[in-house]
Amino acid sequence: TEHREAITRPEPEVVKDGRYPVCEADRRLGCHRRTLHRYAEHLHITPRINPINRRQFFTGEQLTRIWRAAN
């Protein structure tokens, strides 16, 4: 049996095409960044890369998919 950390907050209010840096994404989902990345990997969701600062971000649509898989 696979152990999965729960994401227990209500569904995050995000803009479907919005960009959410990892630190904002984990706050909106109410989980640790490692948990966020584990779910993303499990769902084959690849964070995007901001071309200006080279930092990872998730779209609102991706965050909604992660939240729904966790609940």
Can you put this structure into words, describing what you see?
The protein is α+β, with helices and mostly antiparallel strands and 71 residues long. The protein is built from 3 helices and 3 strands. The protein has helices spanning 22-29, 33-42, 60-70; strands spanning 19-21, 48-49, 56-59. The longest helix is centred in the C-terminal third of the chain and has 11 residues, at 60-70.
Put the structure in a nutshell.
By secondary structure, the chain is α+β, with helices and mostly antiparallel strands.
Separation, N- and C-terminal Cα atoms? 17 Å
- The proportion of residues in beta strands is 5-15%
Helix and strand sequence: EHHEEH
Largest sheet, if any? Answer: 3 strands, antiparallel
Task: Give the helix/strand layout.
Blueprint: E1 19-21, H1 22-29, H2 33-42, E2 48-49, E3 56-59, H3 60-70
Antiparallel strand pairs: 1-3, 2-3
